[in-house]
Specification:
Blueprint: E1 8-17, E2 20-30, E3 35-39, H1 46-54, E4 61-66, E5 69-70, E6 81-84, H2 96-106, H3 111-124, H4 140-153, E7 158-162, H5 170-187, E8 190-195, H6 198-204, E9 207-212, E10 215-220, H7 222-227, H8 232-237, E11 242-250, E12 255-259, E13 265-273, E14 278-284, E15 289-292, E16 296-306, E17 309-316, E18 321-327, E19 340-345, E20 350-354
Parallel strand pairs: 3-8, 3-9, 6-7, 7-8, 13-20
Antiparallel strand pairs: 1-2, 1-4, 4-5, 9-10, 11-12, 11-14, 12-13, 14-20, 15-19, 16-17, 16-19, 17-18
Helix pairs in contact: 2-3, 2-4, 3-4
Length: 356
C-alpha cells in the first residue's frame, strides 16, 4: 500500500522511565487502511508505543502525526482513536448495547444516532440480537466482538489492538483472527495490533514492525522479514533458526560456502546481508535443510512427527547440531536415533548470512 503521505507518522518517539529507556527514538510511517503488527519479546516497548499513539502515555520526545496533524498533546478522548484491550475492559453492569454506546454517549451524540450506530456495529461484528445481554452471559469470543464494536462505534480514524486475542484458546483465536481481518478490510480502517504471536502477525498484518530493546529493528512484509531478516536477532526471533559460525567463501556462480571450525563445509545461496568472505554466521531454518545422498555426513539424534512433516535433529561430524524438516511420506519419522544419514542445504534455499 502506498500513499502520497503517511496516515500515521511516528517521528523520533522517545519514552523514558527514570534511567530506563522504554522506547528509543522510533520512526514509523503507516499508510491509510494498512494493518500493521507490532511484534517483539516482552519488554521491547510495543505496548508502550501503542499507548503513546492512544494518548495514555506522554512521550518524552518526538511527535505523533495523524493524517498530517500533530496529536501529541491531545487527550485520548480528543484523538478519535478506538482501542481494544486484551481483557476487553467491558463494563460488567452494562448490557452489550450500553457498552457499545458508551463512547458515543461520552461524546454526547444524539440518541437517534446512538441507537442506529449500536445496531450497525452489532451487524458488523455479527452480534445482532445480543444487545440486551450482560458481558457475563457471553463467551470470550463474543466479549471480544463487543469490545471491538465499542471501539468502532465512535467511527475512529485509527484502531489500536493490544493483544486482543491473547485470552482465547487456539481454535477460537484463529476464528477471531479471520473476523478481525474481515472487519478491518470491510471498513478500511488503519489498524495497529500489538501481539507476541508470530503466526498471528504474519497471517494478519500487511506489514510487521519487529521491536527489540525499544527500537524498530525491521519493518516489512511477513515475506520480507521471514526470508530476508535484516539482523541475526530478527532471524532468531521470527521462526526457528539455528546459527552456525564459520568462514564464508565464494563458490561457483551464485553459490557460497561456509566452513565450520571442525572442517564441515556447507554450500548455499546467500540472502545477505553479509556478502564478503571471512568470518560469518549463517542462519538455517529446518525447511531449508534436507536428507540426501550426496551431502555432509550426520547422525540422527531424534525424529519427531509434526503433522504433515517430521522434525529431524542431526549432529554433523564436528558436533554441530542442526534441525531439518522432512516429508513424512519419505519415512523420516521412522529414522532411529544413531542412524547415519547425509544432509545438505536445499539447492534453492537462500540463507541469511550475518557478521559474526
Amino acid at each position: 500500500m502506498v500513499t502520497d503521505r503517511a496516515f500515521l507518522l511516528l517521528d523520533d518517539i522517545q519514552v523514558r522511565y527514570g534511567d530506563a529507556i522504554a522506547v528509543d527514538r522510533i520512526d514509523l510511517a503507516i499508510n491509510a487502511g494498512e494493518f500493521v503488527a507490532l511484534l517483539g519479546p516482552s519488554g521491547c516497548g510495543k505496548t508502550t508505543l501503542l499507548r503513546v499513539i492512544a494518548g495514555f502515555i506522554r512521550a518524552n520526545g518526538g511527535a505523533v502525526m495523524l493524517d498530517g496533524v500533530d496529536i501529541s498533546t491531545l487527550s485520548p478522548e480528543d484523538r478519535r482513536i478506538g482501542m481494544v484491550f486484551q481483557n476487553y475492559a467491558l463494563f460488567p453492569h452494562m448490557t452489550v448495547a450500553e457498552n457499545i454506546a458508551y463512547g458515543l454517549r461520552s461524546h454526547r451524540a444524539p440518541k437517534a444516532l446512538i441507537a442506529s450506530k449500536v445496531q450497525e456495529m452489532l451487524e458488523v461484528v455479527r452480534m445482532a440480537g445480543f444487545d440486551k445481554r450482560l458481558p457475563r452471559a457471553l463467551s470470550g469470543g463474543q466479549q471480544q466482538r463487543v469490545a471491538l464494536a465499542r471501539a468502532l462505534a465512535i467511527s475512529p480514524r485509527l484502531l489500536l489492538l493490544d493483544e486482543p486475542l491473547g485470552a482465547l484458546d487456539k481454535n477460537l483465536r484463529e476464528e477471531m483472527q479471520a473476523e478481525l481481518l474481515r472487519i478491518q478490510r470491510e471498513l478500511g480502517i488503519t489498524t495497529i495490533m500489538v501481539t507476541h504471536d508470530q503466526e498471528e502477525a504474519m497471517s494478519m498484518a500487511d506489514r510487521i514492525a519487529i521491536l527489540n530493546r525499544g527500537q524498530v529493528v525491521q519493518f516489512g512484509t511477513a515475506t520480507e522479514i521471514y526470508d530476508a531478516p535484516s539482523t541475526a536477532f530478527v532471524s532468531g526471533f521470527v521462526g526457528n533458526s539455528t546459527f552456525l559460525d564459520g568462514l564464508l567463501g565464494r563458490g561457483d556462480g551464485d553459490q557460497w560456502t561456509l566452513r565450520t571450525s571442525g572442517g564441515v563445509e556447507l554450500r548455499f545461496l546467500s540472502a545477505g546481508p553479509c556478502r564478503r568472505a571471512g568470518a560469518a554466521r549463517i542462519a538455517l531454518r529446518p525447511e531449508q535443510m534436507e536428507l540426501c545422498d550426496d551431502g555432509v555426513a550426520a547422525v540422527v539424534r531424534y525424529a519427531r512427527p509434526m503433522g504433515p512433516s517430521t522434525r529431524v535433529g542431526v549432529s554433523l561430524e564436528d558436533g554441530t547440531e542442526l534441525q531439518l524438516s522432512a516429508p513424512r511420506d519419505h519415512g523420516a519419522d521412522s529414522l532411529p536415533a544413531g542412524a547415519r544419514v547425509r544432509v545438505r542445504i536445499k539447492p534453492q534455499a537462500h540463507c541469511p548470512v550475518f557478521l559474526p
